[in-house]
Amino acid sequence: MKKLLILAAALLLLSLAANATEFKEGVNYKIISDKPASVKPNLTEYFSFYCPHCYHFSKTFLPKLKADMPKDMTFKQIHVEFIGREMGVVMSRAWAISELLNVSDKIEPALFAAIHEKHQRFTSMEDVKQFFVAEGVDAKEFEAAANSFMVNSMVASMKRSTENAKIEGVPALVVNEKYLIDTASLKSFEQLAEIIKYLSKLE
Question: Which pLDDT score is estimated for 1?
Answer without folding.
Answer: 43
